[in-house]
Design goal:
heterodimer; A: about 130 residues; mainly alpha; 2 domains; 4 helices; B: about 60 residues; 2 helices; elongated
Chain lengths: ~130, ~60
């Protein structure tokens, strides 16, 4: 059971971080980053399997692979952004966190603009 | 992923805080400061390597 490993890892790391935070807050922050990365990597292999299944389903349903790739890219940007934002918020830097969030939103919008223009093209074609 | 890295970072942190207390008691404030800096840099290198691995994995999975 992977989940038991992950929860145990999280509890252990939390204990160590609480011990470290009284003496050295900066090292406690690094420890929390490391734990976040390790848990994320453990989950990522499962996500990869799931994405393979989705791609299989999409190719069976004749969905354009371009759109699925776009969705996956946006998902990846969201995960990375959220990771950074949570760490910044943990360290009490709310200003930096909201800037990272803004950057993530802008990049997602940039990726989504081709889709939006495609939809507008369809709408324009429908109007006689 | 190796869980040993967490113990490594926590161990470095606890060791440095203990050494810091000893140095402060001995009246060597600036050396204690330097020790803190060195500890942060060492841990930072470990964490940066980890983050680079993570970003490469995300790139591989989500097809960037």
């Amino acid at each position: 059971m992977e989940i038991i490993r992950i929860v145990g890892l999280g509890l252990l790391a939390t204990t160590l971080i609480v011990i470290l935070r009284q003496q050295k807050p900066e090292l406690a922050l690094h420890l929390s980053i490391a734990v976040g990365v390790i848990i994320f990597t453990l989950v990522l292999s499962k996500v990869s399997d799931m994405i393979d299944i989705f791609q299989d389903l999409a190719s069976k349903a004749n969905v354009n692979m371009l759109y699925l790739g776009l969705i996956l890219k946006i998902l990846g940007i969201t995960y990375i952004t959220e990771f950074g934002v949570q760490i910044c918020k943990d360290a009490g830097e709310n200003a930096v966190a909201s800037k990272i969030e803004l950057a993530g939103k802008v990049f997602i919008l940039v990726l989504a603009i081709p889709l939006l223009s495609a939809i507008f093209d369809y709408v324009v074609k429908l109007i006689p | 992923m190796d869980v040993g890295l967490i113990f490594k970072i926590a161990g470095i942190g606890i060791l440095i805080s203990v050494l810091n207390i000893i140095l402060k008691q001995a009246g060597k404030e600036e050396q204690a400061q330097m020790l803190t800096l060195v500890g942060v840099v060492i841990v930072f290198t470990l964490v940066v390597r980890l983050i680079s691995v993570l970003f490469q994995n995300i790139r591989g999975v989500f097809g960037f």
